[in-house]
Amino acid sequence: MPAYKAPLHDIRFLMNEVLDYPAHYQTLSNGEAADADTVDMILEGAADFCENILSPLNQSGDEEGCTFNNGEVTTPKGFKEAYDQFVQGGWQGLSFPEEFGGQNLPQSLNLIKSEMMGTANWSFQMYPGLSVGCMNTILQFGTEEQKNLYMPNLVTGEWSGTMCLTEPQCGTDLGQVKTKAEPLADGTYAISGTKIFISAGEHDLTDNIIHIVLARLPDAPAGTKGISLFIVPKFLVNADGTIGERNPVSCGSIEHKMGIRASATAVLNFDNAVGYLIGEPHKGLHAMFTFMNTARIGTAIQGIAHAELSFQGALPYAKERMSMRALSGKKDPEKVADAIIHHADVRRMLLTQKSIAEGGRAMIYYAAQIADKMADALARGDTAAFEAHDDHLGFYTPILKGFLTELGYEAANHGMQVYGGHGYIKEWGMEQIVRDSRISTLYEGTTGVQALDLIGRKVLLTSKGKVIRDYTAEILKFCGQHARNKYMRRFAWDLTKLCAQWNALTVRIMLAARKDRDIVSSASVDFLMFSGYVMMAYFWAQQAAVASAKLASGEGQEVPEFYKAKIKTADFYFERMLPRTQGHAEAMVNPSKTMTSLAPEHFSFDY
Questions:
Q1: What count of other Cβ atoms lies within 10 Å of the Cβ of residue 462?
Q2: What is the chain's mean pLDDT, rounded?
Q3: Which of 202, 283, 404, 490 has the CB geometry, 3.0–4.6 Å to 73, for a possible disulfide?
Q4: Are 244 and 235 in contact (CB under 8 A)?
């Protein structure tokens, strides 16, 4: 298994040179505390914890997995001790209010910490990661009493949280939720039903687990308009915050999964469990989207996490493994063969991994700044600003989640391929990264669901294409600023053409949908992938612009190879990755009939 090394140089490059985090923090009401020394201390501390505590448990945790015995779940050896260190370090409360024991730092620092933790050990990151959405939901929609009762122990990490949406008969289509909530005389509710695929739904890391549960009241209308949201703790909580008696929430089993085997995925049975309404009746789905958006950004991080870890495993192997001679002549003449890093096809795979990890990281870090602004607006009680930033992030979310997880899985496969037959052997750890990465394209909404959300809801229904026009206008402004730069003008020209194409494709699909409604679905994944490649190109162009300016001015002479590598990787992305857009563009505008003309009964393997 590759030993994780936090890419602090790249993280600081994005924060300080490309996205200007110091100036960004000055605009936030809680940004003053995020001074340079504090940020550096957090980055160094997180890197140390991830490299020395979490990374060594990644492969052993996969081999051992979680064990289930009569409703109790035990995590792999070392996980409980690592989690205790996580709690002692105050890592869970990094971006939560001081009144509940947090440090009140910007959300982005928590996301950056989560990237490091997830790359070092994604299974471990799942446990505290699910709690973040739980806390955000309680913070935004909970009563003062609920906040005071649950937040302090959630913020310290002594308790954890989950989200309970999926049921045996429904996943994405939450309108089919059947879990019931019966009102009781004391103002609480009796929650009954079964939830499946509940990440971190049962484990031995914390004293209590706070479940956020979707359920229906007796008078609920049908469909998604009849769903309410409830807090259902594993152990009831006394008025003074201490743990009370066990709530009738039981773990029926845990899933036997392809990957992230050290993360427990539970089947939970609620048998008249005591629940507390959070938010308004029948409006639980609206509140749950707070949770979902948090979770989807977290899943997008998984895409770059696996790309980064797989690259860190593949690169040293490519430098050490000797096989054949390079076509351009001997590179290691004193040895029997050349290192495989000298073969162009191996470099293609390595550069694909590198461009995905570093390009995706830039996309995530920009989205993290929007999340900062959302949290700041919420803290100030500025509803209009919060909704504006929420809409802004809403455009990014399906692209980040859908596009980056698909590319993260591709990058993980490339890392395994670099090893050849050794990549298929468990001891190297590369096949684990592939298995772990596979779930990322499925949970929190599959790629197809993200694609429909993007084109169907965000682009066509809500904005009538305006969101694309606004975003391409931002890119075109950047292109105009760099059009005269000798190095940057080719990037600017490519992006300018793609912006025009992006808008034209949007209009074509919008018009075609008047007669062919299925084209929205048939075009959706191609539209999402096209959008992702263009967005990543924009962020690579920004990195290339900064790197080339640093070298030209002489400021980058201390570490010239870092900036040169940025430029070369940007070149690779534009020349080898970005042309994929044209296949997606051609496919998305074709009529849907090739997908819809075959009748269901004709999908057969036995005629």
A1: 13
A2: 95
A3: 202
A4: yes
Q: Three-class SS of residue 268?
A: strand
Domain range summary for the chain, segments of one domain joined by +: 287-440, 449-593
Residue 369 and residue 423: Cα distance in Å, rounded? 37
User: Two tokens at 393?
Assistant: 């992030």
pTM: 0.96
Residue type, 540: W
Terminal Cα distance for the chain, rounded: 46
What would the pLDDT profile of 420-458 be if each residue is shown by its tens digit?
999 999 999 999 999 999 999 998 889 999 999 999 999
Residue 339: how many other CB atoms lie within 10 Å? 18
- Give the integer Cα–Cα distance in Å for 102 and 363: 27
H helical segments located in 121-245 = 122-141, 144-156
Superfamily of domain 287-440: Butyryl-CoA Dehydrogenase, subunit A, domain 3 (1.20.140.10)
* Cβ-contact 150, 235 below 8 angstroms: no
3-state class of 236 per DSSP? strand
* Alpha carbons 298 and 317: distance in angstroms, whole number: 29
The residues annotated as belonging to the active site are 444
